């Protein structure tokens, strides 16, 4: 349900539209500056400032990324069920601000981190108290991200009225704009902020995005009168559980012969079907039993039935839509597992290579993801300005190709990225061997870091196709009242991808260890490892995942929806009071 009339602003101008984008994007830009500015170079912070072993630092990084991508489920639930997207974003931003301030202080105050290493002295690792402050700050950041990430995407898309023919193409374009702006802020983070962290200090490197986050909160709240606001429609998870419970209670009932006999009630569904009601499908018919009307379900006219016993077709189809999205959602996990290595092992590769652009200027290792960002931004611009028009001629679709095809292209390119990364590692180690540096962990190998550009760039191109397609898929195919929750599924796939990376690294590190101290993923010297085997294992896993995705995409049934219309009332269904 929308607050009053969400399309009007005190009678002066329509609410929403392009004018709201600077206010919304400012919040997303600062959140990404904070996350990426620290996350990209975090492994350097953990190893050089807190003196963690490499594998422990890599797992800490992926665990943090996983947690930060899991909390959007909580943020989405609060948004859809309780307070709406605007207030969820606002409160989450304040929590994020507190976490960033604490993190900045931990980088500034010497007592909050171990002393620097001196000479041949064994480096002192961070104490439990110092790690506690770090993890507490990261947890607040993760909670803040959980409220911002799913809601900013959906809140921005809400500003375009899908029932207005003039705005029908703007929603899918918005996802390109959103990812482009997000990518641009990430590009700024991996260049300017990483340079400041490496050459000026972590205090300034974290302080700048902390200040930017504070300003973004003020800007976002300042746009309040311009936004289209959607009231929360109640807990979507409760509705899904109610359908499951209702179907279980009626599991022994015979299915009705005519789907039109199933219960429908537009009055109780009004707040969750603003864009149209979901129509009955023949899949997963077990859940249809939740909409069978029995004697126990009959109540007086105007009263609401017990939703733990009887649900409408629309609510049943909400559950079916979520279940149908599951296999496609799961397919995105391994792509994130592969992508996550850019901030761990790919960064460690870069640290051992010649990074000089000129004799006096050296690229920070953490800034190598600039090539990922540039290729992603270039691909998004090329897709939006050129490829869509070409594809449209053959498909007739305004968006060029379906989001499922777009995701498939991303999967294929991601496979190539991991394959190339393995060959680049072979070349790097050959150069180390040729110069007698294979036993020197911190030696700079005389091979240009630009050999790593192909793997970084391919990951960026893959993300431009797969991740945007994934976001479009969740927003388009989710029931309207569950769009924040559905968008959170995008972030949970990122979360699980990071956790899978942690598990994979831990398992390989444990079982590839040899009696002579050899290891595929050594803690101190990549030159003695077999990192290429790890990359090629990821390649094989992604090929299997690609086959799985193709099968899921071919079997996928798109969400069936009937737009509200006075002339379109053919599926009225059974009214309460009629028993079967």
Automatic annotation (TrEMBL):
**What species does this protein belong to?**
Hibiscus sabdariffa (roselle)
| InterPro entries membership | MFS_trans_sf, POT_fam
Q: Does the keyword Signal apply?
A: no
| Source species, domain of life | Eukaryota
What broad class describes the main subcellular location of this protein? membrane
According to the record, the segments passing through the membrane are 177-196, 202-227, 322-340, 370-391, 403-424, 444-468, 489-513, 533-556
Q: What is the protein named?
A: Uncharacterized protein
The root-end lineage is:
Eukaryota, Viridiplantae, Streptophyta, Embryophyta, Tracheophyta
Indicate where this protein resides in the cell: Membrane
Keyword Membrane: yes or no?
Answer: yes
Keywords, sorted A to Z: Membrane, Transmembrane, Transmembrane helix
Its family remark reads: Belongs to the major facilitator superfamily. Proton-dependent oligopeptide transporter (POT/PTR) (TC 2.A.17) family.
Q: What topology in the membrane does the UniProt record assign? A: Multi-pass membrane protein
């Amino acid at each position: 349900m929308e607050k009053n009339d969400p399309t009007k602003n005190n009678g002066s101008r329509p609410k929403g539209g392009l004018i709201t984008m600077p206010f919304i994007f400012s919040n997303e830009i600062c959140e990404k500056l904070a996350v990426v500015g620290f996350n990209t170079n975090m492994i350097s912070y953990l190893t050089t400032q807190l003196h963690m072993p490499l594998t422990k630092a890599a797992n800490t990084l992926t665990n943090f990324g996983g947690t930060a991508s899991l909390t959007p489920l909580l943020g989405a639930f609060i948004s859809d069920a309780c307070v709406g997207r605007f207030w969820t974003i606002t409160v989450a931003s304040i929590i994020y601000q507190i976490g960033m301030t604490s993190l900045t202080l931990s980088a500034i105050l010497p007592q909050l981190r171990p002393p620097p290493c001196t000479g041949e002295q064994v480096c002192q690792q961070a104490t439990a108290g110092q790690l506690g402050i770090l993890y507490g700050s990261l947890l607040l950041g993760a909670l803040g991200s959980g409220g911002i990430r799913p809601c900013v995407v959906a809140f921005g898309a809400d500003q375009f009225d899908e029932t207005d023919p003039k705005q029908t193409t703007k929603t899918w374009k918005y996802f390109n704009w959103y990812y482009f702006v997000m990518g641009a802020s990430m590009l700024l983070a991996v260049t300017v902020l990483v340079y400041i962290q490496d050459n000026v200090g972590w205090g300034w490197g974290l302080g700048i995005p902390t200040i930017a986050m504070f300003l973004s909160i003020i800007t976002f709240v300042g746009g309040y009168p311009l936004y289209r606001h959607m009231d929360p429609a109640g807990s979507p998870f409760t509705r899904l559980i109610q359908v499951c419970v209702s179907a279980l209670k009626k599991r022994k009932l015979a299915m009705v012969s005519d789907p039109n006999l199933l219960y429908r009630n537009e009055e109780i569904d009004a707040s969750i079907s603003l864009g149209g009601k979901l129509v009955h499908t023949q899949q997963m018919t077990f859940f249809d039993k939740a909409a069978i009307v029995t004697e126990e379900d009959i109540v007086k006219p105007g009263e609401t039935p017990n939703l733990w016993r009887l649900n409408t077709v629309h609510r049943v189809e909400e559950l079916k839509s979520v279940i149908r999205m599951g296999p496609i959602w799961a397919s995105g996990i391994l792509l994130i597992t592969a992508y996550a290595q850019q901030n761990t092992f790919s960064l460690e590769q870069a640290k051992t290579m010649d990074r000089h652009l000129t004799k006096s200027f050296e690229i920070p290792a953490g800034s190598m993801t600039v090539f990922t960002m540039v290729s992603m931004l270039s691909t998004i611009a090329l897709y939006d300005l050129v490829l869509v028009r070409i594809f449209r001629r053959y498909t007739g679709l305004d968006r060029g190709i379906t989001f499922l095809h777009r995701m498939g292209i991303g999967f294929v390119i991601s496979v190539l990225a991991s394959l190339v990364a393995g060959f680049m590692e072979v070349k790097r180690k050959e150069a180390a061997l040729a110069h007698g540096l294979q036993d020197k962990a911190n030696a700079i190998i005389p091979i240009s870091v630009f050999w790593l550009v192909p793997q970084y760039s391919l990951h960026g191109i893959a993300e431009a196709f797969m991740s945007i397609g994934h976001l479009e898929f969740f927003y388009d195919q989710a029931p309207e009242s569950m769009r924040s929750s559905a968008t959170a599924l995008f972030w949970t796939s990122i979360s699980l991808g990071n956790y899978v990376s942690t598990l994979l690294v831990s398992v390989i590190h444990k079982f590839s260890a040899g009696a002579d101290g050899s290891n595929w993923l050594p803690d101190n010297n990549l030159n003695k490892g077999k990192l290429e085997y790890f990359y090629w294992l990821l390649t094989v896993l992604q090929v299997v995942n690609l086959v799985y995705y193709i099968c899921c995409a071919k079997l996928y049934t798109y969400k069936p929806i009937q737009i509200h219309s006075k002339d379109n009332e053919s599926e009225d269904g059974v009214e309460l009071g009629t028993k079967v």
